[in-house]
Specification:
702 residues; 20% helix
């Protein structure tokens, strides 16, 4: 029996079906790899190279140092790679003088902090810090007795002539790998195969499809690799070849930054020197956000605000999802046109003022897909503000192509047009926007800068978020986004949330793993839908115990938002939920001086507010893989309870830790197994820490 399209098995993973073939086992490709270095010219900041490939082609390249700890490797066939992109900031274009030693068998480039050794007879790189063993090697260990299952640095050519470069490095048996964005699978990326092509998983949690891909890998050996590519990337990190990490980029060149730490903290900080430091969100944004998919009208919102205040439950922001848009209730799927629905939400200025009088800011939803029957669509078509399809018509996004058109954020005039649609609402007092979606650029779309959808797809969310962020700064002098998608550099336009997780214990655990991976990918502040977004059991509300446990976790995150299908206000989940949410929200407000200080540190250093244990304990072999608890800054250990029974496995790292609730001090490293009552979650403060606290009733909207 034929299944309706919406019920086809595989879902969004069907879009990745052509990408499952291992990088070096594609029968439709011809492979070549680099061999002899035929020319090497020294410069003050590195070397320029010519290298012979096994197919007889000459590959040109450069190794250029930016700082003593960072160099950039670029390799190409015909056309030199672009120097810049929206991923990078000015810090990516510095140079550092180095010493170059060119011997008969190798060339060594020494910055004082690290030395790059290049074997000239048979291409291979070894990177050795001063007075330490090598941290990066290309040993080509994964061979067969006859043949090989991996190849050294090189490229492959498809039947249509498309060339795509690949890189590889050797893995140590005890090595761990982190980063690559928010992926929902195991926190340690070693042993995983990931295709970097941002897509909406539509409420599923998978190991590949996700909203925020970031081309940064961090190795426990003390280095990071930032791939300066926004094409589709494929990572094979000890899978299928166990001793090798291989990366294929979707471009006719290879361009990456090598970042030496040796600590993960130093790598993240140096990564944000290249892609930008986080900016400080407004102080009020650290309060509690209330939202759902979707508030129906002004009367409903005002009733919820009044009840929150009556129950003495804190809140600073109310968010409206798509029903604030005129005509959305009559549409099948989402789109945008920025026309306010006066029937559902009459007197918008009065509504903003009413909320303000009660201490609430207003946030509005948007997506970059314009309803094709709207006045805005006619404006966009008349002025060329949409990307084009191969036939010259306006391009349609992969999501809701029947009703919407795709804005071209590579067109400066289209960017200004999109920004101008925000200005009336910003002048009205709207405080935040939620740039939803952004992962649906079709590969065959054509953009105003002559790039294709294949090239822009992963970068599009960054361009989209940048446009919204900048108009908010222009109008308010501050900006606050709540973005679903992103890419390298998105930390400049905070914040992101982890998307539409299911209301399941597995969904909650995957949300924490995704968030910790964002923390290791330069995203210093992130949030999630408290309670989960949707329930696979016919969209029923989440189980009350799950809701309470997720609220405890969410209220001890960098930003806290209750959101999902159906109501997420605590009174829907019983009196116990009201009590616990009230208590943990008050705890959050008491911790705001501490949380805000962590955000200030993030803006200065790039370090995340929510931290995997390994950031603070890099030499602890247990901390290397812990993804079920986290540190809120350096001094608070938070252990979300992720089961209905209240069982918790706790790992206390080295030092003395004071139980937040009882004051009892325990010494780590040690594991604990506890049965945790519903009113509590395991929370420990470093015994020597002086954590600043606010008075329990301190407001944030004043």
């Amino acid at each position: 029996m034929t299944q309706p399209e919406s019920h086809q098995f595989g879902g969004v993973l069907r879009e990745f079906s052509a990408d499952w073939t291992p990088i070096f086992a594609d029968l439709d490709r011809e492979y070549a790899h680099l061999t002899e270095v035929t020319s090497c010219t020294s410069t003050d900041v590195g070397v320029t190279l010519e290298v012979r490939a096994t197919d007889g082609q000459t590959v040109r390249g450069t190794i250029t140092f930016l700082t003593p700890e960072i160099f950039r490797l670029r390799l190409w066939l015909e056309e030199e790679p672009p120097r810049d992109s929206p991923m990078l900031v000015e810090g990516a274009h510095r140079t550092q003088r180095v010493q170059v030693s060119d011997e008969s068998d190798r060339v060594e480039t020494d910055s004082g902090a690290i030395a790059v050794l290049l074997n000239k007879a048979e291409w291979s790189l070894t990177i050795r810090p001063k007075d330490r063993r090598a941290v990066f090697e290309q040993r080509w260990d994964d061979r067969q007795i006859l043949g090989a299952v991996t190849l050294p640095t090189g490229y492959s050519r498809r039947a249509d002539g498309t060339v795509q470069f690949h890189e590889m490095f050797s893995l140590d048996p005890d090595e761990h790998l982190y980063g690559l964005g928010e992926h929902f699978g195991p926190f340690d990326r070693k042993g995983q195969r990931i295709v970097s092509w941002s897509r909406d998983p539509v409420g599923a949690i998978t190991s590949t499809a996700c909203y925020i891909n970031i081309p940064l890998i961090i190795s426990s050996r003390g280095f990071g690799l930032l791939f300066h590519h926004h094409s589709k990337l494929t990572y094979e990190l000890g899978n299928p070849a166990l001793q090798t990490a291989a990366i294929r980029v979707g471009d006719r060149y290879l361009d990456y930054f090598f970042i030496y730490g040796p600590s993960a903290k130093e790598i993240i900080s140096r990564y944000t020197e290249l892609t930008g430091r986080p900016t400080m969100p407004p102080r009020w944004s650290f309060g509690v956000w209330w939202s759902r998919c979707m508030y129906r009208n002004r009367e409903q919102v005002e009733g919820i605000v009044e009840r929150l205040r009556e129950l003495d439950i804190p809140g600073d922001v109310v968010h409206l999802d798509p029903l604030w848009l005129k005509g959305r209730k009559d549409k099948r799927l989402d789109g945008c046109h920025f026309e306010w629905d006066e029937d559902a939400f009459p007197d918008p200025q009065g509504f903003v003022d009413w909320l303000g009088e009660r201490g609430f800011k207003l946030s509005l939803w948007e997506i970059p897909y314009v309803y094709n029957d709207s006045k805005m669509a006619r404006e966009g078509e008349a002025n060329g503000y949409f990307a084009r399809d191969p036939d010259g018509g306006p391009a349609k996004p992969l999501e809701n192509p029947e009703e919407t058109l795709l804005v071209d954020f590579t067109n400066p005039e289209a960017v200004r047009w999109w920004q101008d649609k925000h200005r009336p609402y910003l002048k009205m007092g709207v405080a935040a926007f939620k740039p939803d979606y952004g992962e649906a650029v079709p590969p065959d779309a054509i953009f105003s800068n002559d790039t294709t959808g294949e090239q822009i797809h992963n970068l599009y969310p960054l361009l989209y978020n940048k446009a919204v962020y900048e108009v908010m700064r222009e109008e308010h002098g501050e900006a606050m986004l709540f973005s679903r998608s992103g890419y390298a550099g998105s930390q400049r336009y905070p914040i992101n949330w982890t998307g539409d997780a299911p209301c399941t214990w597995g969904g909650m655990a995957a949300t924490l793993r995704a968030g910790l991976s964002l923390s290791m990918s330069g995203i210093s502040m992130w949030s999630h839908d408290i309670g989960g977004f949707w329930n696979p059991k016919l969209f029923e509300p989440p189980d009350p115990t799950l809701y309470i446990r997720w609220a405890q976790f969410g209220l001890l995150s960098s930003h806290s938002r209750f959101h999902g299908e159906r109501g997420r206000e605590p009174w829907y989940y019983g009196e116990k939920a009201v009590e616990v949410v009230r208590e943990f929200a008050r705890l959050r407000y008491r911790l705001l001086p501490y949380i805000y200080s962590l955000a200030e540190a993030a803006a200065a250093t790039g370090l995340p507010v929510v931290r995997p244990l390994l950031l603070e304990y890099p030499d602890d072999p247990v901390a290397a893989t812990v993804d079920y608890e986290y540190l809120l800054g350096p001094d608070l250990l938070v252990v979300p309870v992720m089961n209905a029974e209240g069982r918790a496995l706790i790992y206390l790292p080295d030092g003395e830790w004071r139980d937040w609730w009882t004051g009892k001090v325990s010494t780590g490293p040690r594991h604990l197994r506890l049965d945790v009552p519903i009113e509590r979650l395991p929370l420990y403060a470093r015994a020597t820490a002086n954590i600043p606290l606010a008075p329990e009733t301190a407001p944030t909207s004043s």
